[in-house]
Amino acid sequence: MNINFEIMVAIAGLFLTVIGQGLYLAYKLGKFEQKLESIEKKQDKYNNVINRTYALESRTEVQDEQIKVINHRIEDLEEFQQY
Q1: Distance of alpha carbon 64 from alpha carbon 61, whole angstroms
Q2: How far is 48 from 50, CA to CA, in rounded Å?
Q3: Could you tell me which of 48, 47, 50 has the C-alpha nearest to residue 58?
Q4: Which pLDDT score, from 0 to 100, does residue 17 have?
Q5: Rounded to 10 degrees, what is the CA torsion of 12, 14, 22, 24?
Q6: Residue 24: which of 32, 35, 12, 13 has the closest Cα?
Q7: Which pTM was predicted?
Q8: What is the dihedral of CA 63, 68, 69, 74, to 10 degrees?
Q9: How far is residue 1 from each of residues 7, 11, 33, measured CA to CA in Å?
Q10: pLDDT (tens digit, 9 = 90+) per residue, 22-81?
């Protein structure tokens, strides 16, 4: 009879330990998800900056090409004025 009581106490202890560890892991998982969301928000901001930079670089290339065309036209007009 004494052995059965000791086995029941050991099983109860094991059961409580497993429940405690499960609750602790659930808590830590919640904290991890919060940190992950924070990192995702920062990543989205970074990606937005990259997209804006790419758009600015594209516009700059177009403007550089337009400036070259304008300079060429000015040179043509200056040559035409000399005649």
Answers
A1: 5
A2: 5
A3: 50
A4: 96
A5: 100
A6: 32
A7: 0.53
A8: 120
A9: 10, 16, 48
A10: 999 999 999 999 999 999 999 999 999 989 999 999 999 999 999 999 999 998 888 888
Residue with tokens 């300079």: 71
- Tokens 């989205």, residue? 44
Write the DSSP assignment of 6-67 as a string of letters. HHHHHHHHHHHHHHHHHHHHHHHHHHHHHHHHHHHHHHHHHHHHHHHHHHHHHHHHHHHHHH
CA distance 13 to 23: 15
Tens digit of each residue's pLDDT (9 = 90 or more) over 6-15:
899 999 999 9
